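Study this fold:
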Amino acid sequence: MDRLWSPWRYQYVSQAPEQPACIFCEHAAATQDERNYVLHRAGFNFVLLNLYPYTNGHLMIAPYRHVPDLVETPAETLAEMMKLAQAAEAALRAEYQPEGINVGFNLGRCAGAGVAGHLHLHMLPRWFGDTSFMTAIGETRVLPEDLRATYQKLRKHFS
């Protein structure tokens, strides 16, 4: 059996407390935006990098309000979220020249939500071939850029 070393994954799987705190609520309340990779704060939502990205540039848009789904989210929050998604798309296209972008919500744990109780929108730049054998066979993603570099690239688009 071949083994692929992915030490960053250990931090993710080993630090989940029994009653996990909401990372979005914590980041919304914090003031260390660079440390938390918060790219932008708007009136109802904020934009931040995913700490465990599927691709370089994987970001999320989350409301400050802790709501689990679209039905409970106020219309003005959803409208602003879409405006931020437009800005995020422009930033991702400018910095990464992706061939496509996945945009989506995972509503509920069985739908893939890592934080099921707090609505958030994922945006992932995509390229043909970015799901290579490493992902398909080795269940490992190869990311050539660290989060600090991604933050610096995208932050300037939200200033």
